[in-house]
Specification:
Blueprint lengths: L1 E3 L2 H13 L7 E4 L12 E2 L2 H4 L2 H26 L5 H28 L10 H5 L3 E5 L6 H11 L6 E3 L6 E3 L1
Parallel strand pairs: 2-3
Antiparallel strand pairs: 1-4, 2-4, 5-6
Helix pairs in contact: 1-6, 3-4
């Protein structure tokens, strides 16, 4: 993730990405005004990239599954001995319902929650800069970093590992 100050540099960086084999669908752009992105060879970032959609949905499913499991266990305890098949079925059904309801509620919350990583770029986006997100395997990060430095030598390149909770700045 990095900022590009103008559309000319953005076009050059994106063209170089494509020349080294980065696919169009892996480059996501964010601008303060979506009309600035028309005519560019890659797509604007979607809600999945700009909101807490996935994270909140995941946590909603975890919480919902936990509540569903607890509700199922409580129901089988309160209703008395109903047999292992009926009791187990009730626990499984309430857990699945909890996961579904929690995921749905998490999705609703996440769609309206801006991605916390974008807050620090808000001022630059308002000034007309472009935020570029590139989905690449970690082993290609050095290659991408070199391309970025060729066109935007002052850019702060932020590497975000989607599978880990830590960040690195290069």
């Amino acid at each position: 993730m990095f900022l590009v100050p103008n559309q000319q540099q953005l076009s050059e960086v994106v063209a170089d990405f494509f020349s080294i084999g980065i696919e169009e669908g892996l480059v996501h752009l964010i601008a303060d005004d979506a009309s600035q992105l028309t005519g560019l060879p890659c797509r604007a970032a979607t809600d999945v990239e700009t909101t807490e959609f996935e994270n909140d949905m995941d946590w909603g499913m975890v919480a919902g599954g936990g509540f569903g499991l607890a509700a199922g266990l409580m129901a089988t305890t309160v209703l008395g001995p109903v047999g292992p098949l009926t009791g187990g079925g009730a626990v499984i059904v309430t857990s699945i319902l909890g996961i579904s309801l929690g995921g749905w509620l998490g999705k609703l919350v996440g769609e309206e929650t801006p991605l916390h990583l974008l807050a620090k770029y808000k001022h630059a986006l308002e000034q007309g800069c472009f935020l570029v997100m590139v989905d690449i395997p970690e082993e290609r990060s050095c290659e991408i970093h070199k391309v970025i430095r060729q066109h935007c030598p002052k850019a702060l390149v932020e590497i975000i590992h989607l599978h880990w909770d830590h960040q690195q700045a290069a």
